[in-house]
Amino acid sequence: MLLAGRNAIIYGGAGSVGGAVARAFGKAGARVFLTGRTLATLDAVADDIRAAGGAADTAAVDALDEHAVDEHAAAVVATAGRIDVAVNVIADADVQGTPMLDMTVEDYLAPVVQSVRSKFITSRATARHMVRDGGGVLLFFGGSGEPPRDFHLGGLQAGFEAVEHMRRQLAVELGPHGVRVLTLRTGGLPESIPAGSPARASIERSITGQTLLGRAATLEDTGNLAVFAASDLARTMTGTALNMTCGTMLD
Hints:
Number of strands: 7
Distance between the termini: 30 Å
Structural class: alpha/beta
Largest sheet: 7 strands, parallel
Radius of gyration: 17 Å
Low-confidence stretches: none
Number of helices: 7
Helix content: 40-55%
Order of helices and strands: EHEHEHEHEHEHHE
């Protein structure tokens, strides 16, 4: 198994993307530490991992609270010995569907401020342990890209761009210590949109219509790519984004 013996923290582990990555990590042999604000939803994902033969732990941790994040990272090291992988996929507090001219400044900036703050806090906490232990992998989610012409994303893409700069900076600073830093770049995951959302159908058409393959990445695809990125098969990769946009974005 590609991640046998590895310990992975997933911030936002109860969400659709976090859950998909967690299940894939568990299947690949990692011990998964799921964090989020609600234990009940985290435990449901952990139960799935355990039922499939994997190992999972849960903890209520607010990724915007630096003290709580630092304490949890230290507790994982005390329990498991080290942190090998950290993934932050918490919700970005974004407001979509509203033209910028009709938005409040608070709504536009929310996904920028929250995303940058949470990624900084969780990356700093986990990377400190990785540097001490001689290596590890930080995985981000989102990536650079042009905003779609037929939907209003508010400040979401601005937040992604800010995090991409953080990812590059971290890769430069942490590379000499054996820590790799990567982004999973999906171009949009229709499956992650709540089934009851009135905008789901139009967003899915927009995402799929911009691809070259006529289909979008799935949650399973995302989990599988995360496993690859975190494994030694990708040991030569850092400071870059893994493009799984089905051709929406060309590098």
